[in-house]
Amino acid sequence: MEKHLKPYFDYLLKEKHFSLHTVNAYVKDVEAFFNFTKNTVATVNELKYQHIRLWIAHLSEKKLSNNSINRKIASLKSYFKFLYITKTIEAYPLQAHKSLRIKKVLQVPFSENEMQQIDRSAFPDDYFGLQNYIIITLFYTLGIRKTELINLQLHDVDLQKREIKVLGKRSKERIVPILSSVVGLLTEFLQKRNEQFGSDFDKNIFLLKNKQNLNQTFVYRLINNYFRGVTSKGKKSPHVLRHTFATHMLNAGANLNTIKELLGHASLSSTQIYTHTSLASLKKMYNQTHPRSKTDDDDL
């Protein structure tokens, strides 16, 4: 990391309370921009919006999607806002910038039938097979994010109260209830975990065979490997499981506010995206319950 980016790194990590993964991604984007402009500008105060437009054109020529470019520009926005509020620069070069248009892709959740096919018999009959099954089960029954699962610690689980404390975005904590069926699985797993690793490993719940914490690549591959055998859907990831959790809850009658709290969303607008995928369920219920659906004569 460039020396001049260290204050920005500390600001995101310590004041904004972003995860280390997010902070590293932001800093990497900013570094890429400065590498692109290093031969044209000497100081940050010389940077103009035209330099940013050239970078956008460069990224587009490299066939990056508008969504990826918008994410990189969001990193730049954050960085220049930091420079502006710390009075390092006199003008904010991205003030008039508008995000590139992106095509909205509807996230398709797994069906209930597909989820039923991911049962315990599909996993190896050993400790790590059980761990893999527990990981997928928690994604589906808690609706947690990938990083939230990776960072779960032993003291976060209260089996007596049937609760798990989840550390969400910007270090915001929330309590998520555990289903009775999952309590039994967790009890068995934690006992075997103690046998596998001993009581000294009392931090993260889930560990790799080398006793290291899980990483994002491992978790993504785990979900993809198991679900490619039960579904033809293109996207198979932890986020799709989170989406599946919310959609199935909504289809079963849960209200949006409840789902919002369980997911740890800051506002309902983030949760409302799941209403689109339950449209088929709404149509089915509408056709089954509306009085006019029982007759072919709309004039009655």
Structure report:
- There is one protein chain.
- This protein is mainly alpha-helical and 300 residues long.
- It has two domains: 3-85, DNA polymerase, domain 1 (Orthogonal Bundle); 112-284, hpI Integrase, Chain A.
- Helix content is 53%, strand content 4%.
- The chain has 14 helices and three strands.
- The protein has a three-stranded antiparallel sheet, with no helix packed on it.
- A hairpin with a 5-residue loop joins β2 and β3.
- α1 runs antiparallel to α2, α6 (127-142) packs antiparallel against α8 and α6 crosses α10.
- It is globular and about 60 Å long.
- The N and C termini lie far apart (73 Å).
- InterPro entries: CB, DNA_brk_join_enz, Integrase-like_cat_sf, Integrase_catalytic, Integrase_recombinase_N, Integrase_SAM-like_N, Tyrosine_recombinase_XerCD.
- Residues 1-84 form the Core-binding (CB) domain.
- Residues 105-287 form the Tyr recombinase domain.
- Pfam families: Phage_int_SAM_1 (PF02899), Phage_integrase (PF00589).
- Keywords: Cell cycle, Cell division, Chromosome partition, Cytoplasm, DNA integration, DNA recombination, DNA-binding.
